[in-house]
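User: I've been trying to design a sequence by hand for this structure and keep getting stuck. Would you show me what you'd pick, starting by listing the structure so we're on the same page?

Assistant: Good idea, let's start from the same input. This is the structure you sent:
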């Protein structure tokens, strides 16, 4: 079974960095990486592909990451999907809003690529037989 990770961020450089960070998972475990450049497209891809993990920015055009996360949690088919907010909004109340919207984790930019890789492996480990 192939696992899918969706990166939803409006910044092309961030999407590229995350893809580069996670590409070894493609090579080593056959994980499929998908990207979307705004919240609306991200939600459509989530509904179509049902990824195991979504890395989700908050501040995006058309639909914020908070709105996307809330839509995921309200959908009975998608509600158990793992969502990691990855955003520049690092204030305590921003993190609280992310968790209230349903995020499983909240990481702030700038980030260390190794930290992202570690978190993604932690989330996917049970499905990759790494535990």
């Amino acid at each position: 079974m192939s696992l899918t990770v969706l990166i939803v961020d409006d910044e092309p450089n961030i999407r590229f960095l995350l893809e580069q960070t996670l590409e070894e998972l493609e090579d080593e475990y056959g994980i499929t990486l998908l990207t979307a450049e705004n919240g609306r497209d991200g939600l459509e891809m989530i509904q179509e592909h049902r990824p195991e993990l979504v890395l989700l920015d908050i501040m995006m055009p058309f639909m914020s990451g908070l709105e996307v996360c809330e839509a995921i949690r309200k959908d009975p088919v998608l509600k158990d999907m793992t969502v990691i907010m990855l955003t520049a909004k690092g204030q305590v109340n921003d993190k609280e809003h992310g968790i209230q919207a349903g995020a499983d984790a909240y990481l702030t930019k700038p980030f260390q690529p190794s930290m992202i890789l570690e978190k993604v492996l932690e989330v996917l480990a049970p499905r990759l037989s790494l535990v």
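That's my pick for every position. To get oriented when you compare it with your attempt: The chain has one domain: 4-128. The two ends are 17 Å apart (CA to CA).
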